[in-house]
Amino acid sequence: MKVVSDIPSYVKCRHTCEASLSATRCFKFRQLLKEVSDEELFASGHRGCSGCACALAIRLALKAAGRNVIVTQPTGCMEVVSTPYPETAWRVPWIHVAFENSAAVASGVEAALRALGKKDRVKVIAFGGDGGTVDIGFQALSGALERGHDFVYICYDNEAYMNTGIQRSGATPYGAATTTSPPGKESFGNRTFKKDMPRIAAAHGIPYVATASVAFPLDYMEKVKKALSIEGPAYIHVHASCTPGWGIREEKSIEVLRLAVDSGMWILYEIENGRTRVTYKPAVKRPVKEYLRLQKRFKHLTEEHIAVLQRYVDERWKEVFGEE
Amino acid sequence: MREMLHGSKAVAKAVKLCDVDVVAAYPITPQTPIVEYIAQMVADGELRAEYIMVESEHTAMSACIGASATGARTFTATSSQGLAYMHEVLFIASGMRLPIVMVNANRALSAPINIWNDQSDSIAERDSGWVQIYVETNQEALDSVIQAYRIAEDKEVLLPVMVCMDGFVLTHTMEPVDVPSQEEVSGFIPPFEPELKLDPEQPVTMGALGEPQWYMEFRKQQDEAMERALEKVKEVDLEFARTFGRGYGLIEEYKTEDAEVVLLTMGSLAGTIKDVVDRYEGVGLVRLRLYRPLPVEEIARAIGNAAVVGVLEKDIALGLGEGALCTEVKKVCYDRGLETRVLSFVCGLGGRDVRMEDVEHAIEVCRRAAKGEKVSPTTWLGLREAVP
Lengths: 324, 388
Description:
The structure holds two protein chains of two kinds. By secondary structure, chain A is α/β, with parallel strands linked by helices. Chain A has one domain: 3-Layer(aba) Sandwich (Rossmann fold), CATH 3.40.50.970. Chain A has 14 helices and ten strands. Chain A has an eight-stranded mixed β-sheet with strand order 2-1-3-4-8-7-9-10, sandwiched between helices. Chain A has a two-stranded antiparallel ribbon with strand order 5-6. In chain A, a hairpin with a 2-residue loop joins strand 5 (about 185) and strand 6 (about 185-190). In chain A, helix 4 crosses helix 10 (about 215-230) and helix 6 (about 100-115) runs parallel beside helix 8 (about 140-145). Chain A is globular, with a radius of gyration of 19 Å. Residues about 1-20 of chain A have low confidence and may be disordered. Chain B is an alpha/beta fold. Chain B has two domains: about 1-245, Rossmann fold, CATH 3.40.50; about 250-380, Rossmann fold (3-Layer(aba) Sandwich). Helix content of chain B is about 40%, strand content about 20%. Chain B contains twelve helices and 16 strands. In chain B, the strands form three sheets. In chain B, strands 3-2-4-5-7-6-13 form a seven-stranded mixed β-sheet, sandwiched between helices. In chain B, strands 10-12-11-14-15-16 form a six-stranded mixed β-sheet, sandwiched between helices. In chain B, helix 1 (about 5-15) runs parallel beside helix 6 (about 140-155), helix 3 (about 55-70) packs parallel to helix 4 and helix 6 packs across helix 8. The mean pLDDT of chain B is about 95. At the A-B interface, strand 1, strand 2, helix 6 and helix 8 of A face strand 3, helix 3, helix 4 and strand 9 of B. Strand 2 of chain A pairs parallel with strand 9 of chain B, so a sheet runs across the interface.
């Protein structure tokens, strides 16, 4: 099996061994590894924290996309750490305008490519964090999806406003402590459940929606490639941890993200032309507690609140996998 | 070809003549007919452009930024609340040095909600780094859009340009307009070929983080580009006059020579004032066409010999007790050591008619001031005597 040399080792086997893949899927992944770019289009030397899964989300997406892409990016961690003038980590054309308009800027880029007759050669990816996607950038994203621009929107979701120091967003999970949803005498942390952005995106009737996780890089890159190959808007929502924001050790990022999927806190699926397909089913369903206990942001939760989360997960699990 | 055109249609024709690649716009009264005409031109295949029917003005400007950065010639139009909604991204368009052209159909800002004309919307954006041109007629609106692309895309400038036209007064009023031919306009505006653009062949990073050790230099360069824009507006207008037989200058002077009282205004109000001025001796008018960058030299020269300047403007700088333009004319006088008295006349807010007798009243106040009588520094023209 030819493995692109600089894809880290966890890509090579853990995924393919433990996921009990079908022979077809395994073959597809091997093919994918041959196809992805071995160039680092998101260069090292940026100022992201060690263990930053969002930086990985970008790096892997660009490996899948290759050079012929224009990237738009909202204000946020990934913008700040990657482009302190006069330095840049981007080896593809990249533009940042404001916080709430990554999808709007991408609309303009795509229209310009169309007008200038370059659309067939160049793809457009709009990135956004969870705040820039599910909250402040929601309107611009909805507009761009509804208008049918040919672009891929990738939301890297670290479940709070991390760039400004861990404030609660619409994607913050139930019970999580953030600086604006702190636990206290009258509070157990964030009172609401995550906004279900992928399904909201799907409700626009766009051809492709997928969830992904940085801990499942092949599944993620396959989805990015597919999204780019489809004409029309595509939306990918990738779960990506934040070491300071989640209160995890830097070497634990992938382990924690994997547990999110194995516990059912995050489910990997894709919706292609209205048809939903689960792309990974954990062999063993792990208790939510195992996922929570690795993270400081959930440390304060009582058994009662953990039970609420477990029930929430069980219901979704049943809905998706049709069993307990 | 001479045609009877609404101001909106004159603008749409200019957009077509300029061979714009991408239009992104959101409807708002009284800008709406402009984008309707453009949409129809695209639908009829008369204008080969991508028309993005965006979901907000914020996105309209953001999409123009994305398109312009990719190397497309872009256009948008808005008004009042729409311009205010764009506020954040206006600064980014100019900070990123993108030559976007926008027409603003001047309309009052809420509250109270009001769809009629005044200029407080675009004046509130005076520090956003956009070149601002205020037009008097539909002909000038068409001509200014054509000039705007030349100014904006000039490599010495690279700044966005806002052409401001009075809502309804111009947008919805017909006037005879000489529409130049496609050949003439194509000869005047070279194709848009930016040195840097979003292109995988030559990847660049646009909109990087400017930390304290760099930010000021970016702003300084923008201010210098504004200075160069002043010369460029002049130059482009002269060349336009040579090509099309019409020119406007940075300011228009009307009977200012030896005038004791000079009125100063922007936009379509100049038409009314000229009629009134004709009835007086020693009263002239300066119509300011270029508001940003402010042509300090030209204004100083035009008002230098007057005893009193009355600034008639459709905006009020709340908390300052006068219009913003009045304050800036005072700056011109201070900088140039002029002893000219500058008085503020706030008028026409929210579509209130500015009648000839209002202008006469302003002239009377200025004349009394010229004689040394004590007058109020600010007069509101056409105000109800008692508000119930």
